[in-house]
Every structure is written in C-alpha cells, then in structure tokens.
Amino acid sequence: MHRPEAPAPMMAIRRSRPSCADWLIFQSLPISNRSARLQTHNSSLTLVSQASLAPPTDGEEPMTYDWQAALAFVATLIGLTVVGRFLVFRIPALQQMRELNQAADKGKLARKRFREAVKASNNTGLITNLVFYVTILPLCVSFAPRPLWQHLVEILAVLLIFDFFYYLTHRFLFHGPILRKVHSLHHQAHTPTYIDALYVHPLETFIGLFLFLGSIPLAAAAAGGPLNAFSMAIATLVFTQLNTINHTFVNLPRFPYKTLDRITSIHAAHHVDMNRGNFATLTMGYDWLFGTLEERVDRSTP
Ligand SMILES: [Zn+2]
Ligand SMILES: [Zn+2]
Known about the structure:
Layout: H1 20-28, E1 37-41, E2 44-48, H2 67-88, H3 92-109, H4 112-135, H5 137-140, E3 141-142, H6 148-174, H7 180-184, H8 202-223, E4 227-228, H9 229-245, H10 258-270, H11 285-289
Helix pairs in contact: 2-9, 4-8, 6-8, 6-9
The structure holds zinc ion (ZN) (2 copies).
C-alpha cells in the first residue's frame, strides 16, 4: 500500500494573509525549502503554495532599510522648500512682509549673543536631522503606492501626533518648573519676527525635533508598516514651515491673507509673556480642547 511521505516540518500557521513574520521566516529558509509545502491542519492536508508566502503587498510591508526612499524624502523636502519660497515671494504683499521681518531681524542679529544662540540652535537641528535621516527614517518610509486618502491620513496622523505631544511638552515642561529657564530664551521675543523661530535654546530645539521626528516611527508602527516617503516629506514641510511662519510678523487682515494673519497673531499672543496659553504649534485644536486658547494680538509694527 502506498503511504504518503511524511510532510516537511511545518513552517507557519496558515493565515488568510501572509504577515511580515511569515515573510521573515520565508527569507530565512534555504532556497530549496521555499517551494510548495505540505501542512497538516485539522487532519487534512493543505497545500501552501509559494505564492501564499510571497512578500506581503497589501498594506503589510516589512520595515526594511530603504535608503532610496529616505533620499527621495530629503530631495522632495528640499525641492518643495526652495520652489515654495521662490513662488510665495513673487506675491507683492508677502514680499513686503518679508522685508519688514528682515529689517527687524537685522537689528536682532547685530547682537553677538543672539547670533550665537541662533547658530547653536541651527547646528543642533542639523545634527539631529542628519542622525534621524540616516538611522531611523529609512526604516519608516517606502515608495509603495497607496490611494490618495491614505496619503492624507498619514500626513495628518504624523502632524496631529506631534502637535499633541508638543502641546503637553510646551505646557508642562517648557512652561513648568523643569525647563522654564531653557524656554525663557525663546520668550525674550515679545513681538516675534522670522528669526525668533530660530532663537531657541539647543536643548529645546532637540526636544522639539525629537517629538516631530519621533512621530514618524510612531505613526508607522500604528500603521503596521512604512509610510510613504513623499507624504512624510510633505508632513515635514508643513511642520517646518508652520513653525517658522507662526513667528513672522504679518499685518494683512484682509482676504486672502486672513488665515496667515491669524496664525501669526495667535502665536504672537503666546509671546506677550510666559503666562499665556496657545501652547500647540501647528493647530490650535489642543488649546481649544484643553481650555488654554488665548485671543490673538494685533500688531501694527514688528
Ligand atoms: Zn512658550
Ligand atoms: Zn515661539
């Protein structure tokens, strides 16, 4: 009587969809063992084809070190920043505001201590970004295509996660007893202009960046795989630009600049002294939610 050969050792419990773990186990097997396998399950024989062990493609991507995606992220971020600045300052009203900020910044930068603080903050930011871009970012981004709504969800998730943790850090650490002294450097600006976005203690620069950059792996972990490199470049662009824009002096209380005017005057209210609200930096949603929203301040001159 013919007796079937003993089945090969079972490799994995069959799932309706292969997981990242399946793929890692599959990769660790010798090539000769990657062909079809017999698997017993509930006293029946199930053929697990090679196709079922193929790399997951439907939203369960493995977290691999994708340096090309990370490079595309950096190139997109720099490209959008340069092109965006070029286009934005073709608008006469915005160029006029820029000149007002530059004139005020020139006076502040004439002080050696101010210049050195800005330089120290910039250097800290550069090093923190570089370390993150080389070590963590390639594990969190990929080129995998996805529908438009998923791009939007990824961008919003990263920005809202960051803004939540930044709100708590700003309110309870920077304005609390622990880091109040560190944060007071930034609060020397009572009527902030562009350069005050960079007039930040290096420790505060590091913490702020750490919170934003940390939101990317956090969102990737929640999504169960890497996020899209281009979506993350846009999220980072929004983060860097809003953080800078909210410190600029803008006096354009008319259409179509009303939102821009409001963003800047809301953060200016936070800078009046260190006892005011408006602790979030991207959206006022958390200040509204937790009752720390302060009214905007109107400024006629920087
Ligand atoms: Zn503050
Ligand atoms: Zn500020």
